[in-house]
TrEMBL record:
<dbReference type="InterPro" id="IPR000262">
    <property type="entry name" value="FMN-dep_DH"/>
</dbReference>
<keyword id="KW-0285">Flavoprotein</keyword>
<comment type="similarity">
    <text>Belongs to the FMN-dependent alpha-hydroxy acid dehydrogenase family.</text>
</comment>
<dbReference type="InterPro" id="IPR013785">
    <property type="entry name" value="Aldolase_TIM"/>
</dbReference>
<feature type="binding site">
    <location>
        <begin position="293"/>
        <end position="297"/>
    </location>
    <ligand>
        <name>FMN</name>
    </ligand>
</feature>
<feature type="binding site">
    <location>
        <position position="262"/>
    </location>
    <ligand>
        <name>glyoxylate</name>
    </ligand>
</feature>
<feature type="binding site">
    <location>
        <begin position="84"/>
        <end position="86"/>
    </location>
    <ligand>
        <name>FMN</name>
    </ligand>
</feature>
<feature type="domain" description="FMN hydroxy acid dehydrogenase">
    <location>
        <begin position="5"/>
        <end position="367"/>
    </location>
</feature>
<feature type="binding site">
    <location>
        <position position="133"/>
    </location>
    <ligand>
        <name>FMN</name>
    </ligand>
</feature>
<keyword id="KW-0288">FMN</keyword>
<protein>
    <submittedName>
        <fullName>Alpha-hydroxy-acid oxidizing protein</fullName>
    </submittedName>
</protein>
<feature type="binding site">
    <location>
        <position position="238"/>
    </location>
    <ligand>
        <name>FMN</name>
    </ligand>
</feature>
<feature type="binding site">
    <location>
        <begin position="316"/>
        <end position="317"/>
    </location>
    <ligand>
        <name>FMN</name>
    </ligand>
</feature>
<feature type="binding site">
    <location>
        <position position="135"/>
    </location>
    <ligand>
        <name>glyoxylate</name>
    </ligand>
</feature>
<dbReference type="InterPro" id="IPR037396">
    <property type="entry name" value="FMN_HAD"/>
</dbReference>
<feature type="binding site">
    <location>
        <position position="265"/>
    </location>
    <ligand>
        <name>glyoxylate</name>
    </ligand>
</feature>
<dbReference type="GO" id="GO:0016614">
    <property type="term" value="F:oxidoreductase activity, acting on CH-OH group of donors"/>
</dbReference>
């Protein structure tokens, strides 16, 4: 099926998921869509977002809803950044070059994963606004080297993932003895070796083994101070769920936090990201930006996040679904669908822009109104 034909069949980002299932080898599909443990947190992310209901306003001029906003000081055509996702050449041969091109064309930032299958320099040539994601490496010298490469390539922010002292138990990958497809490597770590695609070993995941070899589980707040001194770029912490950690991030000069449970791929049983969002936003108190990650699938989800205190969201798996379904054009189509959904939802919610969306009231499935939720947020943050 050609990209044009595929795109015509995709009316929502979720439609791309089924196309991706058909296009990808089973082990790669499970690597993309899988979760830690039994998938409790993966499911909770969607269930929690589905419980949030918006209370629309009426009699407002929504003839031309504006989806544009700013993320980390950069203009974006919608409050979305493409999340950091590793080894995208496993999904499509063009990998990160295709998804970065899609982000460029839709006017949103693209986050380069430290474990990307194209180098930051190669991705920079595409011309997207780039953020650079890092894990805390055992070798600080290598961390600094990567930061300098990211700065030289033109990245405008650094995102440190803080919820991965070790990789979650991703049972599908372990049962399959997952290894990366032939020719797919971490472009920034070409000296890494693994079991190879021809000889999978049940119980061993190549990606988990590489992460264990490279990532230092001793990461602490003193290390954040050190990292803050290494770069003048805005610093984002990804993986914050507790409001006390958000307060501490502000004290350490962090520019943004991402409320994220790693898409359900780390601690199985962790709180759904959107359930954690209001308290984290309250704790940040406007002193740093707050982004939502994990489970975002639509333009309406973006409005829910903004109404609950987020500046914007990270979009992950749906972009990979589009990439698998139709390469760069597929990824671009998914991002375009999200923007169209966002514009449509803004109009129907009575919001001419994102500022109006931030003032919407919400009702949850248990009957709490937005006003009650505000008091609950204050109580939670105050109870230290």
């Amino acid at each position: 099926m050609s990209p044009a034909t595929t795109n015509a069949c995709l009316l929502t980002p979720a439609d791309a998921e089924e196309h991706a299932r058909l296009a990808l080898p089973p082990t790669v599909e499970r690597f993309v869509n899988g979760a830690a443990g039994t998938g409790l947190t993966l499911r909770a992310n969607r269930e929690a977002l589905d419980r949030v209901c918006l209370v629309p306003r009426v009699l407002t001029d929504v003839s031309s809803p504006v989806t544009a906003g700013r993320l980390l000081g950069v203009d974006a055509k919608m409050p979305v950044a493409v999340a950091p996702m590793a080894y995208q050449r496993a999904v499509h041969e063009d990998g990160e070059l295709a998804t970065a091109g899609a982000a460029r064309d839709l006017g949103v930032p693209f986050t380069v994963s430290m474990f990307s299958s194209h180098s930051v320099e190669e991705i920079a040539a595409v011309g997207a606004t780039m953020w650079f994601q890092v894990y805390w490496l055992r070798d600080r010298g290598r961390t600094v080297e990567l930061l300098r490469r990211a700065e030289a390539a033109g990245c405008v922010a650094v995102m440190l993932t803080v919820d991965t002292p070790r990789m979650g138990r991703r049972l599908d990958d372990l049962r399959a003895g997952f290894s990366l497809p032939d020719g797919v490597k971490a472009a920034h770590f070409r000296d890494l070796s693994g079991p190879g695609p021809g000889d999978p070993t049940p119980g061993v995941s190549e990606v988990a083994a590489q992460t264990a070899a490279l990532v230092d589980p001793s990461l602490s707040w003193s290390d954040i101070e050190w990292l803050r001194e290494q770069t003048r770029l805005p610093l984002i912490l990804k993986g914050v769920l507790d409001p006390l950690d958000a307060r501490r991030a502000v004290r350490h000069g962090v520019d943004a936090v991402v409320v994220s449970n790693h898409g359900g791929r780390q601690l199985d049983g962790a709180v759904a990201s959107v359930d954690a969002l209001p308290a984290v936003a309250e704790a940040a108190d406007g002193c740093c930006e707050v982004l939502l990650d994990s489970g975002v699938r639509s333009g309406t989800d973006i409005i829910k996040a903004v109404a609950l205190g987020a500046t914007g969201v990270l979009l992950g798996r749906p972009v990979l679904w589009g990439l698998a379904a139709g390469g760069g054009e597929g990824a671009k189509h998914v991002l375009r669908l999200v923007q169209e959904e966002l514009e449509h939802a803004l109009a129907l919610a009575g919001c001419p822009d994102l500022g109006a969306a931030s003032r919407l009231r919400t009702v949850t499935a248990d009957g709490r109104t937005g006003a009650v939720l505000e008091r609950a947020r204050g109580d939670m943050v105050g109870a230290r």
